[in-house]
Structures are given as C-alpha cells and as structure tokens.
C-alpha cells in the first residue's frame, strides 16, 4: 500500500524493571529470537515475550501496510501465527511509544479506519476532511467553507480546485487538464519484476484493488498474490484476477496463463454492502 513512512528521533527503547504492571520473563523474544539478549522481555496479553523495539517495528510495519488492528505474529508450534489481537493500549505500553510515535500511530489508525468505510479528501481551501456521498459526482461541497464565507463552496474531487462547471452535480470539471491523479499514477508508475514468479517481468509497480480501488504495491519477495488491506480481497498482482480465479489455472509461483494485465485506466468503484 502507498504509505507515509516517517523517520523518528532515534531513542533506546527499554522497560522499567520496577514497573509492576508488566510481567517480565527470562526467555528469548518470540518475535525475534536474535534480538539483543540484554533487553528485558515482557509478556503480551497472549503470553508471547517481546522487547519494546521488536513490538514497535512489527506494529509500525503493519501500519505502513494499511493494517491498523494489530495481531501477534509469533509462531505457534513453529508453523502457524498466533494472530491474537493486540489492543492499542497494550501496544502503546509494551512498545514504549514516545509522544511523537503515539501521535503518528493514532493519526494513521484513525485515517485507515475512516478510509475503510468512506471516500474522503481534504478540502483545498480549509483542509477539512470531506466525505463524498455520491461516488459518481465530482462536484463536492465543503460545509465548513460554505459557512465561513457565507456562500456555497464546491470543489472538484479529482483536481482539488474550486469547482468550475455546472453544479451541484456533474461528472465533468471544466478545468483544462483535470484528471484523476490516481489513474495517472497507475499509468506512469515504474515496472517491476517478481523474482519468485518465473517469467513475471515488466509488471506495473502499483495496482488498484479490483474491488475497492485502493492503491496497492507488491513487496517483490513473495508469491504473486496480495491482500488488499481495506476490503481484504486476495488478488493476483499480475493478472488482476481474484486469487481463487487465478489459482484455477496456475499456482501462486507460476506465471499467469493470461500474462501481465495491462495498466489500469480507471479506479474501480467500491460498492460497499
């Protein structure tokens, strides 16, 4: 997923051995057995041991991939993940989050949760988040600007400029060059190879989820299938068919029978149930 990676001020994360709210154990970190042996280990609610640094890095990676409900990745019996939910209050405490890190986590968790249930943009004038109720209408009203300036303020959902054209409903903006920036990104992004899939070369590096339209990237290290973090569809990054449909003719590590799907020319509309 397209993420907003942030660099934090470097600090040593450590537990206070006098903290009676934590349960400390003398065993290896279940998230990273090779982590610093000098760091204290504390138990997660599920009973797995962690250091604050390994828990922080795991949850941060999940957030960067669009996952805002954290789960324990520790292996159970060597093969399956624990997958027990980790409440954010516990993550905040056991990952020793700084105020800066807490703000980053909480803002992004709220953003991802909102993104899952509606379409929204920042108003180009006041920067307030505005939800688009009608997915076919490019002319959107900002209620905050309308109240503040005493007259109706509309803007274009695609080019984010004050509206020019017929209002309050239109599927066409009159600004020259107005276009969907997400479509432009899909059309111009670089191409990548998928080393784990023989013959998978020159694939667009960014795809729009076939179900909800969220922009998704491939890490180039796993099989050809990816999971959309918003609608949870498993789909093939190469042919853009669902995983179940693609697997009827090829395995996850084989080139698709229909080859690389061309660059997408439109963003799928998510019809939420």
From TrEMBL:
<dbReference type="GO" id="GO:0008270">
    <property type="term" value="F:zinc ion binding"/>
</dbReference>
<keyword id="KW-0479">Metal-binding</keyword>
<keyword id="KW-0863">Zinc-finger</keyword>
<dbReference type="GO" id="GO:0016740">
    <property type="term" value="F:transferase activity"/>
</dbReference>
<dbReference type="InterPro" id="IPR044066">
    <property type="entry name" value="TRIAD_supradom"/>
</dbReference>
<feature type="domain" description="RING-type">
    <location>
        <begin position="23"/>
        <end position="260"/>
    </location>
</feature>
<keyword id="KW-0862">Zinc</keyword>
<keyword id="KW-0677">Repeat</keyword>
<keyword id="KW-0833">Ubl conjugation pathway</keyword>
<protein>
    <submittedName>
        <fullName>Uncharacterized LOC103388192</fullName>
    </submittedName>
</protein>
<keyword id="KW-0808">Transferase</keyword>
